[in-house]
Amino acid sequence: MKNFFHNEIDPQKVLIPQNRLQERVSELGHEISQAFDGKDIVLVAMLKGSFIFAADLLRAMKISCTIDFMGISSYAGQRRSGIVRITKDLDDSVAGRNVLLVEDIIDTGLTASYLLRTLKQRGPASVDICTLLDKSARRIIDLPIAYRGFEIPDVFVVGYGMDYQQKYRNLPHIAILRPSRSSEDQLESGDG
Ligand code: IMP
Ligand code: MG
Q1: What are phi and psi of 26, to 5 degrees?
Q2: Fewer CB within 10 A of the terminal residue: the chain, N end or C end?
């Protein structure tokens, strides 16, 4: 079989192996379940990047919960504005519910901050952020992160749902595509 990952990615550059991901996601599931025991919680998974993390986190939850999905896309050339377009909205109202915003990675923080504001306008009981990865070195807006899987350095990562030009989401681990994000990525229109 032709090597699907051809020359663009070195599969040796594993940042987080599959077993560490599973362990950590399971810990997060326990922690969140304890915090929300007896409460009504909805996981709001951001498409597309967080769909695999959200699926694993949902299975690690020990309490009754629901899941809903929101799709977003940055406007072309507007990544740094933090204004995103909602391409798929939630199916159900979050009014009065405890919302857990499930993100793949928080980089500058602009996207999550916009989503936090948007969700808070819908009258939820609470909104907390849960991100698998935190690239805090690049943060430009302060954000309260209640649950974080891993702190990572300023590298561009793919796998476990995360992409580069829509590819590599199927890697079971998190790999480093290259040392840092290029300016061309920052200008690219993306859908997380
Ligand atoms: P932020 O608004 O800068 O925090 O961007 C967050 C979004 O950018 C994430 O939800 C991802 O979709 C994308 N992103 C940021 N860093 C990476 C990365 O290293 N790999 C893949 N996607 C990334
Ligand atoms: Mg995303």
Answers
A1: -65, -40
A2: N
For the CA of 186, the nearest ligand:
1
Task: Note whether 176 and 15 are within 8 A (CB).
Answer: yes
Task: Compute the distance between CA of residue 97 and CA of residue 123 in angstroms, rounded to an integer.
Answer: 8
* Cβ count near 3 (within 10 Å): 7
At 187 the pLDDT is: 40
- Ligand 1 centre to CA of 164 (Å) is 10
Distance from C-alpha of 186 to C-alpha of 80, rounded to nearest angstrom: 7
Nearest CA to ligand 1 atom 11: 192
Q: What is the pTM of this model?
A: 0.90
- Nearest atom of ligand 1 to the alpha carbon of 111: 2
CB of residue 185 inside a 6 A radius of ligand 1:
no
Kindly give the parts of the chain with pLDDT less than 70.
1-12, 75-82, 179-192
| Chain segment 125-152, per-residue pLDDT in tens | 999 999 999 999 999 999 999 999 999 9
